[in-house]
Amino acid sequence: MFRLCNKAVFMRGQWTNFSLRLSFPSCYSTSPVRLGILKRVNEKYERVLEQRFPRFYLLYHTLMRGFKLLFEDVKEVRRIRRNIRSKSIHYRQLPYREMERLILFRRDMIKAIPLAVISLPPFAICLVFILMWLFPQQLLFRHFWTAQQQRKFQMISHRKRSEHQAQILNNVACIAPRVSNWSQRGLLQNLCTKVQSGAHPDVSELLGVREVFSGPLLGMQSLKPSHLRSLGSQIPIIVWLPSFLVRRRLAKEALDLICLDSALDSLGLNQLTDEELQRACDLRGLYSGHLSSSQCRAWLHQWLQFSAQVKESETSLVLHSLAVFTVNYPSMRK
């Protein structure tokens, strides 16, 4: 009898759930007519905003577009990570575009952490919008910038990198006389003199001093904290962390770049669009705002020639080359 009662209750529960599933879609389904009405209302709302509050409309439109791009990124990154798990591979073995998407998404999310923390308290959304309006470069990332802001912030980042590039070159020039190998010392001093005079170095000149950047003076474990922070300005990382964390992060970013270069070399520069060419230059520390597509492609070709011959243990050479190989391109100081 007890079993029969349980079975009856279970069947009754199943019927109830089944009836709920039938009734809910009929109550909450959105018909094409309703979708059309909502679309027209939204378009009218946007026209009113654009006519009466143009500045607010620009912010609203940028935010909506940014959330759409971010949502697409999240879906694509989830697909890439499922692919990594299913094939049991490392993300550094991915094709170029997938690896680039993963690296850029990770950088964007790290930058978005402060805004996410601020938005945790109740009723903080108003404060978040105010901060987004006042500090877009510090708290937002590329998806939430207008075209004008992207150009402006790109120029600001370029100027900051340029200031630290001079410091990096001065640090290397000061260390050069202490190199014990006289041949390597002469090559390094000639390289510093050439770059500081405004000339663009050759790939062979960079590779000719590779031993110095693996040795006790300019190797990753030998660099001073101030030198590490100058190198960190060439790659967008948090430089005010403890030195051992900055050192580890720089080494990881350099390894990512070596693997990304290898994937790009396999893909071929001719397969990149103009936008992808500019983004590839920016990832490697070169300001592409004043360069043509052919100049971007020429510089990337030189960089890939250099990167193809760099070992994974030579991360210090890669990080210094971000400054040495970009500061004077194409042929003059920017």
Short description:
The chain has 334 residues and is mainly α.
Describe, in plain words, how this protein is organized in 3D.
The chain has 2 domains: 35-135, no CATH class; 153-324, no CATH class. The termini are far apart. The longest helix has 34 residues, at 54-87. It is 71% helix and 0% strand. The protein is elongated and about 80 Å long. The protein is built from 14 helices and no strands. The protein has helices spanning 2-28, 32-52, 54-87, 96-118, 125-134, 136-139, 147-175, 182-196, 203-207, 225-232, 243-267, 274-283, 293-307, 315-324. With 334 residues, the chain is mainly alpha-helical. Helix 3 packs across helix 4 and helix 12 (274-283) crosses helix 13 (293-307).
What is the string of SSEs from the N terminus onward?
HHHHHHHHHHHHHH
Taking pLDDT < 50 over at least 5 consecutive residues as the criterion, the unreliable ranges are: 1-29
Helix content: over 70%
Task: Give the CA-CA distance, first to last residue.
Answer: 89 Å
Number of strands: 0
Task: Report the total helices.
Answer: 14
Mean pLDDT: 81
Number of separate structural domains: 2
SS-derived structural category? mainly alpha
Largest sheet properties: none
Computed Rg? 27 Å
Tell me, briefly, the overall form.
elongated
List keywords for this structure.
single chain, 334 residues, mainly alpha, 2 domains, 14 helices, 0% strand, elongated, disordered N terminus
